[in-house]
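Anyone? Bumping this.
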Amino acid sequence: MAAAFTYKDNCIHCEAVSLADIARQVGTPAWVYSRARIAENYHAIKTAFAPLGAELHYSLKANANLSILRDLAALGAGADVVSGGEVFRALRAGFAPEKIVFAGVGKTRAELFYALQEGVGWFNVESAQELAVLDRLVAPAGSAAPRVALRLNPDVQAETHSHMATGHSAAKFGIDLPTAQRLAAEWEARFPGLRLAGVHMHIGSQLATPAPTVRAVERVLAFIDTIGGQHEIEAINIGGGMPIPYQEDEQPAAVPQFAEALAPLLADAGLRVMLEPGRRIVGDAGVLLVEVQYVKERAGVHFVIADGGMGDLLRPALYGAKHRVWPVAARPGAAPILVQLAGPICESADFLAHDVSISPPEPGDLLAVMDAGAYGATMSTNYNARPLAPEVLVDGEAFKVVRRRQKWEDLIQLEV
Ligand code: LLP
């Protein structure tokens, strides 16, 4: 697979477009995405999981730009959503309602009602109370018995950052197995309007290896065995979590390794297999483009202050996530120095990167914060009254602004 971002003539290009050109025309900070890379990533997962016939539901929370969603819907993906807003977005982008999977630990009545009315395909339910709420809404929404997957908490520890581990017993997510068994047994009496047709799990994100996922799937399959007599379970949804390397020396398990590790368990299970990848599809297809404003040195530490920061890309401040930083214009021969790349926000945590080694930056230089396509723009905020950065989609030699930059006027529009 060709890299989406490469140096040509000493300047980073996204596909055939120079990031310097984009910055000139669109300004900074700006998100830049490679359309081809997103499609390639989608196909790579589809191919690796073809022996399992896996159905991909792209996880909108990673990047929910409508242009990207439209492409993925056209490629045949379904959508994994976690709020009424994401249901709305997925429908707007053209996902068929039956290919939308509605997950989330805190769905409100209004959100569930809306999703029922729109004919959303699956509800991944996370508690007994949520089942009761959904059951009561079926008739008023005029909906046929919706397909429900119980989101199980298989109590496994994923190898990832603690903020991204969701399948252990202390996490708020999912239903423990004994409770799920009881619910399945009491289903007819308690939730007559719902069809228990699947099980769902998602043990975490940026999973280093497939081993904990394999353990969790084993537990989930054992659970299906115990309730198989009472319900027609047609699908197992194993969530998202497949990782990308954020550093040159990182080698998290690749997509085929996940597929191969799961194949022996799932190939003959007689179940539809569903996946909810987010990061693996868009993560390495995007960068955050920023411009250096100021450079200063204190006690030997080089601070580089950019025009984008934690309000744009929150991951470094929130998780200590490490993204590579590339100067848009390479300066061959310039000896690199170690810099701290900070943003303009009035918070000491406002860094895009610590200890990155790059040629000495100067005001006006452009930098690309790499692998920012997932959980970048979707996690941005207006803190410090900073407008959201625009999103640019590159397609070969062309590019398009697919979300314009917010204006100051936009920031006060909701206030009365
Ligand atoms: N399915 C469910 C139920 C999820 O909760 C998630 C992510 C996914 C699928 C997609 O997971 P992925 O394939 O992208 O790993 N903000 C964090 C990541 C949080 C992930 C939340 N759930 C970050 O910036 O790394």
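Late reply, but here is one note on the structure posted above: Residues 59, 61-62, 80, 103, 164, 202, 205-206, 239-242, 276-280, 315, 374-375 surround LLP (CB under 6 Å).
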